[in-house]
Task: structure prediction
Amino acid sequence: MRRANDMVFAYSRQAQRQGWQDAGGAASALFLTLPATPERCAQQLTLIAFWDPARADPPAPNEDVFIGMAVESQNCKEAG
Result:
């Protein structure tokens, strides 16, 4: 899990170099935002490290885990 968390933080640093801004997070989840411009809506990037939810116990530091990423548009206005 430690290695996956390190990768999530590395992805976060890369996103920040491309204009994304830190928007918080906790444990193994980070949130970043990309402000709106006249050409596009604001966006939120979610980076998360997680393990099989069927497991009752957290994985050991070197066990396999997953990294998830999602980008969602925020505060969009309908063109009209």
User: Anything to note?
Assistant: The chain has a mean pLDDT of 85. The helical segments are 2-17. Residues 2-74 form one domain.
